[in-house]
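Please review this pair:
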Amino acid sequence: QLQLVESGGGLVQPGGSLRLSCAASGFTLDYYSIAWFRQAPGKERERVSCTSRSGGSMYYADSVKGRFTISRDNAKNTVYLQMNSLKPEDTAVYYCAATRLYCSAYVSNYGYWGQGTQVTVSS
C-alpha cells in the first residue's frame, strides 16, 4: 500500500519552531518531487515548499522564505520541513504530497497525499 504519513505538528508559541516529517511507505521517494501544502480554515490549499527529486532544487512561498527549510533523506525515504520563527498566520493543516512531475503549484498534479498534521501557532 502506497502511503505518505506526516508527523511533527502541534501547538507552539509565536516565534517557536517545529519540524514536520513526511515518511513514505510502499514506494521510494527517489523518483518524486515532494511538496508541503497547507490549508487554513476557509482558505484554499496552498503550496508552501517543494523539493525536486534530486533535492537540488527547492521552492518556497514568499510567506515562508527565510523561515522554513525543506530537506529530504532518500535513504530514510523521508522529507522534512523545518519551520522557524512561526507566526499565527502559519496555523493550518500541513500536508505532504508526491508528484512525478517537477515541483508543481497545482494540487491536481500530486498523486499521493498524506493525511495531514495540524500546526497551531498561538500564545
